[in-house]
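Hi U.,

Before I forget, here's the chain from the pilot set. I'm dumping it here mostly so it's searchable later in email.
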Amino acid sequence: MFCTKFCGVSTKTRRAVGLGASLSALIFIILYANLLQTLPYLYGLVSKPVALPRYRDPTYGKWISSPRGVADANLWNKFHTCHPDFSPTAGGSVGRNKEKEQKIRSRRVASWEWILEDGKPPREWDTEAFIERSLKSRGGFVFIGDSVAGQMMSDLQTLLGQHHGDHPRQVTEGIELEDNNIFVSASWLTLSPKNPLYDRLLAKPSLTEVPLARFSEPIFTMYRSDNLLTEDELDNILRTVGMTEPLNRNHHRGKGDWRQGLRNLSMGASWPGELDTIVVVNTGPHYSPLHMAPANDDQLIKSYEIVIKKVYDFLSAPPVPMLAFFRATSPAHQNCGAYSQPVASNSSAAENPAPEWHNFGWHLFPEFNRIAKKFFADQNSKTRYLDIWPLSVQRPDAHTGWHKDQFDCLHVGALFVLRLIFNSIKNSGVNPPLQRGGYGIYGIQFKKRACDSVIVRDFIAPSGERSVP
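Structure:
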């Protein structure tokens, strides 16, 4: 495979779909939250229970109308993947102002806020805290998966590029290409020395143990690996479940070598106080009748379980200190173009979002999630299951919309997922106890500002002090 690398302050290479990035936001929050609760015990920091803030599960709640979301959408002004209905039944696109209608729809999608079961929103985002936490581990944050993971990468770039809307936060992006330099297989973000936060972070007492070289290494990495395993591995697995023909290789599959990437982290030196590298992984939409032809549903389900077991085995015995989250596959909604606002959790659209059968495998997502949860939700010291289904299933209105002569009812503009991720990470014990006898909890406030973006704001610890990652 021939790969070329490019680095620069920005890149024009973008993911085909930008909506899935929002999902990553919620994921970060959930990950962060779960980590905080367990880390003192995992690392022997305490020998008896300590008082921790009550864990507020950010995956359960409801959507409420929020005018602030519209203001956020106006600030970020990212609307290009939030498409209006240009279907033939709606009159097509001739004579219509696409950009104007995209802005209108993006603001409508953004005008809702996720409220938890206690009636309050999740914790909010802090750019500086995110980067600091990343620097405290060898790998920072690593996302592995398909186009949804790529969307999360794109939206995180937006979040790191602007903070409170006051001045730019420069990061350097590198990419690695495959298949004749057509597809991105890996990309990463590194804190630029020109970033206003660079010198400030370098001088922080909480980062004195971190090697200077770490500041020039990635804080966030994304591997585009649609099926998480190689095609040869998939062929062998599919044969064991009864498929006699070889895998159809006409469909491109992202083949980013995430396993070698994580192994490479072990080559770097550790340091006192090093924290876990946080990994968020998913696969699901590319285990479909279309992508895995000629496999049938039964073969897809059986092979998926074998794949998830192999992924779990690798991540539960990682090459470096690591905590891995499997992100649930978010639902696709049939007839998503018919919705203009969130639905109730007990509505038919939320309880039965997918048709009985779909060529893209939408009907298999609940079973895939059940399998992944069986392995990753065992709450051992290295793995977690991140369930974003309850939150995203209530947003049939937030999908990409009319795209390339059909409705994209799979990808979703939910930067709120990144927020969920960090909340979960924090509660999972990523951070050691703070001085002053408390634990700071920060998460990401991913406000749906459009179909492909999320808004974040500073989060203040319960004591009123800024939380320290």
